[in-house]
Amino acid sequence: MIRTTTKSCAAIHEISTDLHDGVLTSTDLRSTQVFNAEWDDEGVYFYQAYRDEIANYAVEHQRFGGKHWNPSRMTWIKPSFGWVLYRSGYAKKSGQERILKVKLSHDVLAELLCRCKLARTQKGSDAVVGGTTTHLGDHTHNTRTSCKEGIIEVDVPEGEGSLNNTDKGTCIGSKLIRVGGKGGRIQWDPARDLSTPDSYRGKRQPRKMIRAKDIQIGLSAGLSEYYVENAMLVEDVTALAHAVEAAHGKKNSQETEKAMPWADLPKERPYMPILSVDVLLKLGMLPKHIEEWRKIKKNSLDKL
Predict the structure, then answer these.
(1) Which of 75, 128, 172, 210 has the maximum number of C-beta atoms within 10 A of its C-beta?
(2) What is the mean pLDDT of each run of 10 residues along the chain (304 residues)?
(3) Is residue 8 included in any domain, yes or no?
(4) How many structural domains compose the chain?
(5) For residue 202, what pLDDT is reported?
(6) Residue 32, in any domain of the structure
(7) CA-to-CA distance for 190 and 214, rounded, in angstroms?
């Protein structure tokens, strides 16, 4: 099941072998959404792409800010390096020339997720992110909530943006915080495989995986500010993005394999946030048809 011993942080967040092998890889659960990320005892890594001015400030000051930073805009963070490469065109799209790797503590991430809603897209609408068409770096935001796009929003505890209205049984292992704004959005999109490129309209991109899905987390103004205030580390990984692009541009799979900077790529693996089972279910992080998990009461992860 989910390991929750307190001997090490890794044990808390790992999906145990029997669950991963016996459930997540079964035929009936091939489309199960798994939160894959690079993480350690301290926290979890996320990626964002920005223009030079924003990236330079963030790396120098180890936090976002400066005259080019707009804290009132919604920002999207992604734990998948392959996804940020796909979205930013290997850090070559305008306004997305720099890719930053940001580390958040486990507690901070849990608080952010507590105040998010799940936004699903029906088949054919996976280009819509959380009901919003957005470019990394928050340069373009065109809100679209038409039913034609198949957006289905599932509420998490009421008042995700307010401490007074937040279910105090929601989070596990961290203190509740006062966050303004309208909360955030969780979007699950087709995963992107770093090891193999696809060709789309004559351009290379990380291969789209048919069944696996990666998580994207959209943070509103209040949550974005909390994210900025609590970033543990900001690192520039643009050079790595360009190295992967160069490898994907090779003539065949053998040359790509040889040119890939394997040693420098993030070691992404299944991750389980410190949240109640109820919230994990609402955010699409647990298979909903596993009856055993349906019967578990709030805040009982330590009994699994």
Answers:
(1) 75
(2) 44 58 44 84 97 98 94 93 97 97 97 89 41 35 30 32 34 42 84 93 92 92 92 98 97 96 96 85 70 47 48
(3) no
(4) 1
(5) 87
(6) no
(7) 6
Q: Which two three-digit tokens encode residue 98?
A: 């720099």
Cβ atoms of 84 and 96 within 8 Å: the answer is: no
Is 105 part of a structural domain of the chain?
yes
223: its two tokens: 């949550």
The pair of structure tokens assigned to 20 is 């991963």
* Residue 70 resides in a domain: yes
Strands (E), 90-249: 98-105, 116-121, 132-134, 141-143, 151-154, 184-200, 203-219, 233-236
Q: How far apart are CA 213 and CA 300, in angstroms?
A: 27
Provide the domain limits for residue 56.
37-268+278-284
Contact 117, 217 (CB under 8 A): no
Structure tokens that stand for 279 in this block: 């919230």
d(CA 54, CA 226): 18
